[in-house]
Amino acid sequence: MWLSGLDYQKILLRRLDFKGRLRALFETIDLLLIPAQASASPTTAEMATLGEDPAMIATLLRYTCPFDASGSPTITLPCGFTDAGTPVAFQFVAPHFREETLFRAGYAYQRATDWHRHHPALTA
Fold this sequence. Notes:
Blueprint: H1 5-25, E1 32-35, H2 44-48, H3 54-61, H4 65-70, E2 74-81, E3 87-93, H5 99-112
Antiparallel strand pairs: 1-3, 2-3
């Protein structure tokens, strides 16, 4: 897919707008807690066909991609399993250059829970 210079500039302006909104948000909070994905982790069979389904890729990236684009530090942590046994996770997002806040929050979460000790059953 090719973009014109104007289209690329629009993307850059949207990115700057998002970064500015995040900066304003982080003036009132220390961390943001959001899902890591819009749905549970895909199965092995779904992962095998990932490149064939752009909608699935978009679903998987929905909550991580904006923070990748903004350069915001994040940490993703496990928080359970679906009835089908696939893992569920969330992410903490912090302001720029506040990685130590993420590490402290992640450490505190893991001390209070044991989700990081559980593993999904592997199937073919």
